[in-house]
Amino acid sequence: MALTLYYLSGSPYAWRVWLVLEHKRIAYELKNMSYDAGDFKSPAFRALNPRQRVPVIVDNGFALYESAAIVEYLEDKQPGEPRLFSNEVRERAVQRRMVREADQYFATALEHLVEAVLFTPKESWSDERIAKAYGDLKQELALWETMISGDYLAGSLSAADFTLFPEIALVQRIGKRKPDLLTSDFTGPKISAWMERMQALPVIQKTWPPHWRE
Ligand SMILES: N[C@@H](CCC(=O)N[C@@H](CS)C(=O)NCC(=O)O)C(=O)O
Fold first, then answer.
1. 21 lines ligand 1 (CB under 6 A)
2. Taking the CB of residue 174, how many other CB atoms lie within 10 A of it?
3. Buried-most residue among 72, 78, 110, 197 (CB within 10 A)?
4. pLDDT tens figures, 133-188
5. Chunked in runs of 10, what are the mean pLDDT values of the chain (214 residues)?
6. Which fold would CATH assign to domain 3-77?
């Protein structure tokens, strides 16, 4: 039985898992979820994830949620090249640290921005709330600017890159909804170059959120 990924277009967490499946060339089937159709509230989905969030994978009857845990599971299930974590112990530790940092700090501020812009009707937008979330994200990225050491966040292309890229891409997407949001200093030169490098990867092109292409 193929592995199924419960997916929502535009979710940075679901995108991470899709990227990893493609990168590791693991066969999968995508199940597109819809808020409007009530998919998240269905008893069947709740049985897979009581938190009612994507991503969820079901691998031959084994259901798992939380994107970072799914990424580690996929690496454990199919170890070896192409790897998601370095086989050098310290580099692997830094990659794991970055996954946690992206989820704990960047994604928390990102969720505030999503709430403030995407989930709030335009007429009720609070400039103060939006500026706070945006400022936190910018401050976070100033730190990442000092952390990136080469072409990728830490050593070769890894789970760290597949975690942070979709999160920053979502901020850029929110900038399309609110054109005065993004300032030219949002990402420094190193993170800007890394974003471009990432965006050029075939795996990113292939998994670009479908509704962002429209
Ligand atoms: N920590 C979770 C976050 C998952 C998450 O928040 N997913 C959002 C989409 S971006 C979701 O499914 N939200 C559904 C809802 O809140 O009803 C992960 O990494 O998998």
1. no
2. 21
3. 110
4. 999 999 999 999 999 989 999 999 999 999 999 999 999 999 999 999 999 999 99
5. 93 98 97 96 97 98 98 97 97 98 98 97 97 97 96 98 98 96 96 98 98 90
6. Glutaredoxin (3.40.30)
Task: Please give the Cα distance from 155 to 46 (Å, whole number).
Answer: 38
* Domain extent listing, the chain: 3-77, 89-202
Which atom of ligand 1 is found nearest the CA of 55?
20
Cis peptide before 55 (omega within 30 of 0): yes
Residue 149's pLDDT is 82
State whether the beta carbon of 11 lies less than 6 angstroms from ligand 1. yes
Residue-level pLDDT at 41 = 96
**What CATH fold (topology level) applies to the domain 89-202?**
Glutathione S-transferase Yfyf (Class Pi); Chain A, domain 2 (1.20.1050)
Q: Take atom 15 of ligand 1 and give the residue whose Cα is closest.
A: 53
DSSP H helices, the chain, are 12-23, 43-48, 67-77, 89-101, 107-113, 127-147, 159-177, 189-199, 202-207
Query: What is the residue whose two structure tokens read 């993004």?
Result: 182
Q: How close is the Cα of 89 to the center of ligand 1, in Å? A: 30
Instruction: List the 56-59 sheet strands across, edge first.
Output: 28-32, 3-7, 56-59, 62-65
Which residue, judged by its Cα, is nearest atom 18 of ligand 1?
A: 66
Question: How many angstroms does the Cα of residue 138 sit away from the middle of ligand 1?
Answer: 22
Residues 56 and 61: their CA atoms lie apart, in Å, by: 12
